[in-house]
């Protein structure tokens, strides 16, 4: 599903150039649930941004579902993001003046899906994350866990190939974190490929594979016995 | 532009930000309001001035002589200069090619007119048939003085409308007999109106030849009036008229031996020259009003642009989210641009509506000499609407570009 070869990325800050990724080789098969771990500054967020086409690599190749991702202009990147990827953020990033169902329906709006079908599909995913009754609530009327579930429903709405989650539990307490992880595990069980960036070992243990990043290189890439989040709840 | 989904997005944003939208709209609406009022008044001034000129033909040249105030070539000041039929004929001959209508005039100020029991004092004016066109008079009933009246020195008269109302009320005047100065009977042949109003409608026109006989004037005349032939270009006509006026002035000064700088003794009044000055003034006023109005709108538009910039800044994160979810840059641009255009247009239309409304309401009640019917015409309204849409697009363009250039990765970075 994801194929990365010799990925380099550096940022220039004034006169200094900061080499963040120093040659990443990495591949993910369909249906995997992978966590990317590493301390702050290890390059894990940069990697996720490149995977998410929010940023572009200086060097190296990136293939997503057989499509080479290179020389993207803004328009193409937007279309690929919409078609291939679903994003889940630490701070949820819901649009605060839109209610839950409209937030979930937004990717479909950019796919030019009609309003009626959009609402039906958005409702379907809200039901899936257990928030059908909250469809008409604004984000500030929801708890943190509920917000993240709305965000997950939104990420799923466009039926993407890959879900990219950046510290999805970073702003949540432990109990809520496990509930969200349970939801993510469930989605993975249905066959969807998911990548999670996290620095919490317990969250990483709930995935099927842990990739460890340090100073811009992969130092460790191991399969793990998945811990079911439900057992903690 | 006609994407219903996008409109729904825009309405949603506006609904969620009522106060912000309201304040923005207010500045645009007041800008347009002021522009409309200014334009209304500039057209009012134009109408007012035009109607001042309408009382007589705008291409009139009027010649009159009075008393010299300066000595010249050994002649004393205080000489009365008297034009005669001969002078009139000489001028007619000399300027035949330039003249459109012509008349010489002999008038007295206080002529007493009686009809049955009613009487009044009016100005009596002897004139030629062309006077009708030179005075811009329109017949209400009957006919004007004609050439056979002149040839036969007939005792016929033409009443001004106001005069007819005074003497005859609602009765028919044509065919009736009025008595001048208690001893001469005149037959009324017609009634006229003059855009000059009451002052110009209280005159009795009689044939020039009759006037000279009745008032024992012999060959004497008081004034000469011409209209010059209009050429296609207004400026050309003005130049021609000015040249002719100057030439006539020169002729009379030579004829009567008048000092070149004696402005009182010989007067040649060139209406077209005056009109040109006033029209030039109107154009200037109009230009100044447009300038002020456009300036006000620019202030409003800069306000909208400013607020749109703030909106974009405020919505940086939201725009980043939208882009992460697959919004195309063009969609972001249109979202911002359309909102700006929509707000300016709607607010502007409200301003336009109130401006036009106020002019319609108050306009007819304004009765000053130089302001008449202040209103905006259809073309002006359409022009302001187009200005609005362009202004809205301009106001939204820079913020929209900035919004489209927002990098989702930077917008979404957690602080």
Automatic annotation (TrEMBL), chain A:
SMART domains: AAA. The keyword Aminoacyl-tRNA synthetase does not apply. One of its GO terms (cellular component) is membrane protein complex. GO terms for molecular function: ATP binding; ATP hydrolysis activity; transmembrane transporter activity. It holds the Pfam family ABC_tran. Keywords: ATP-binding, Nucleotide-binding, Translocase, Transport. InterPro entries: AAA+_ATPase (IPR003593), ABC_transporter-like_ATP-bd (IPR003439), ABC_transporter-like_CS (IPR017871), MacB-like_ATP-bd (IPR017911), P-loop_NTPase (IPR027417). Residues 2-233 form the ABC transporter domain. Gene3D superfamilies: P-loop containing nucleotide triphosphate hydrolases. Belongs to the ABC transporter superfamily. Macrolide exporter (TC 3.A.1.122) family. This is ABC transport system ATP-binding protein.
From TrEMBL, chain B:
InterPro entries: ABC3_permease_C, MacB_PCD, Macrolide_Exporter_MacB. Keywords: ATP-binding, Cell membrane, Membrane, Nucleotide-binding, Transmembrane, Transmembrane helix. It is a multi-pass membrane protein. Residues 21-238 form the MacB-like periplasmic core domain. Residues 291-408 form the ABC3 transporter permease C-terminal domain. It comes from the Bacteria. The chain crosses the membrane at residues 21-41, 287-312, 332-358, 378-398. Its main location: membrane. One of its GO terms (molecular function) is ATP binding. GO terms for cellular component: plasma membrane. It is found in: Cell membrane. Belongs to the ABC-4 integral membrane protein family. This is ABC transport system permease protein. It comes from Nonlabens ulvanivorans (Persicivirga ulvanivorans).
């Amino acid at each position: 599903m994801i194929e990365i070869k010799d990925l380099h990325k550096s940022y220039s800050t004034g006169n200094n150039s900061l080499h963040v990724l120093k040659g990443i080789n990495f591949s993910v098969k369909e249906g995997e649930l992978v966590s990317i771990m590493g301390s702050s500054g290890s390059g894990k967020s940069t990697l996720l941004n490149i995977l998410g086409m929010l940023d572009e690599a200086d060097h190296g190749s990136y293939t997503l579902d057989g499509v080479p991702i290179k020389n993207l202009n803004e328009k193409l990147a937007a279309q690929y993001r919409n078609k291939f990827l679903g994003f889940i953020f630490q701070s949820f990033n819901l649009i605060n003046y839109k209610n839950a169902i409209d937030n979930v329906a937004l990717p479909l709006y950019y796919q030019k899906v009609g309003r009626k079908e959009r609402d039906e599909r958005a409702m379907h995913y809200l039901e899936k994350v257990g928030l059908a009754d909250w469809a008409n609530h604004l984000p500030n009327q929801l708890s943190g866990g509920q917000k993240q579930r709305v965000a997950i429903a939104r990420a799923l709405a466009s039926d993407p190939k890959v879900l990219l989650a950046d510290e999805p539990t970073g702003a949540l307490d432990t109990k809520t974190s496990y509930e969200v992880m349970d939801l993510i595990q469930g989605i993975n069980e249905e066959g969807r490929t998911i990548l999670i960036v996290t620095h919490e070992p317990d969250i990483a243990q709930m995935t099927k594979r842990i990739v460890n990043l340090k100073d811009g290189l992969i130092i460790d890439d191991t399969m793990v016995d998945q811990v079911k989040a439900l057992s903690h709840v | 532009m006609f994407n219903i989904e996008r409109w729904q997005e825009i309405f949603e944003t506006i609904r969620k930000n009522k106060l912000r939208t309201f304040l923005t709209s207010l500045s645009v609406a007041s800008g347009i309001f002021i522009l409309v009022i200014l334009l209304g008044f500039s057209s009012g001034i134009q109408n007012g001035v035009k109607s001042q000129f309408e009382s007589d033909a705008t291409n009139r040249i009027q010649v009159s002589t009075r008393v010299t105030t300066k000595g010249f070539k050994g002649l004393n000041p205080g000489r009365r200069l008297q034009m005669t039929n001969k002078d009139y004929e000489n001028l007619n001959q000399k300027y035949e090619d330039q003249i459109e209508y012509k008349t010489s005039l002999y008038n007295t100020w206080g002529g007493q007119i009686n009809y049955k029991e009613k009487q009044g004092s009016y100005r009596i004016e002897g004139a030629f048939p062309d006077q009708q066109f030179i005075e811009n008079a329109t017949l209400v009933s009957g006919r004007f003085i004609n050439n056979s009246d002149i040839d036969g020195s007939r005792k016929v008269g033409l009443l001004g409308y106001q005069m007819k109302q005074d003497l005859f009320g609602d009765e028919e005047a044509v065919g009736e007999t009025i008595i001048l100065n208690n001893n001469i009977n005149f037959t009324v042949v017609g009634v006229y109106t003059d855009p000059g109003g009451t002052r110009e409608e209280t005159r009795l026109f009689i044939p020039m030849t009759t006037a000279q006989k009745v008032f024992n004037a012999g060959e004497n005349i008081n004034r000469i009036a011409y209209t010059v032939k209009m050429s296609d270009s207004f400026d050309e006509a003005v130049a021609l008229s000015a040249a002719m006026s100057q030439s006539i002035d020169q002729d009379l000064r030579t004829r009567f031996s008048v000092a070149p700088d004696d402005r009182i003794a010989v007067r040649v009044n060139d209406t077209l020259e005056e009109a040109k000055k006033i029209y030039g003034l109107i154009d200037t006023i109009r230009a100044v009003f447009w300038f002020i109005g456009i300036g006000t709108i620019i202030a409003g538009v800069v306000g909208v642009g400013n607020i749109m910039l703030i909106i974009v800044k405020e919505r940086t994160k939201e725009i980043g989210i939208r882009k992460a979810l697959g919004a195309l840059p063009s969609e972001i641009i249109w979202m911002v641009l359309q909102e700006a255009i929509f707000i300016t247009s709607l607010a502007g239309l409200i301003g336009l509506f109130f401006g036009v409304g106020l002019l319609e309401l108050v306009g007819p009640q304004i009765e000053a000499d130089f302001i008449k019917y202040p209103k905006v015409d259809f073309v002006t309204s359409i022009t302001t609407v187009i200005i609005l849409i362009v202004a809205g697009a301009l106001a939204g363009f820079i913020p929209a570009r900035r919004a489209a250039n927002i990098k989702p990765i930077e917008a979404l970075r957690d602080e």
